[in-house]
Amino acid sequence: MHVLAAMQLVGEADAMQVPDARLGGVFNMGGAAVASYVRVYWRGK
Questions:
Q1: Count of CA atoms in the C-beta half-sphere (13 A) of 15
Q2: pLDDT tens-digit profile, the chain (45 residues)
Q3: What is the predicted pLDDT for the residue at 45?
Q4: How far apart are CA 39 and CA 24, in angstroms?
């Protein structure tokens, strides 16, 4: 998930590319919802 989000931001997602992507988010829950996190990525200048 993190790699796909990063690929969007650098413009390398080929057929899945969102035009002019500047912000990406990943949400993950593990186990019985005891381990979860959110990570937000943004494309700098």
A1: 0
A2: 999 999 999 999 999 999 999 999 999 888 776 888 899 999 987
A3: 74
A4: 8
> What DSSP line would sit under 3-37, residue for residue?
HHHHHHHHT--GGGPPTT--EEEEEEEETTTTEEE
For 6, the token pair is 């990063």
> Tokens 């700098």 — which residue?
44
Q: What distance in Å separates the CA atoms of residue 15 and residue 32, rounded to the nearest whole number?
A: 34
pTM above 0.70, yes or no: yes
User: What's the number of domains the chain is made of?
Assistant: 1
Other C-beta atoms within 10 Å of 11: how many? 13
Question: Residue 22 belongs to what domain range?
Answer: 2-42
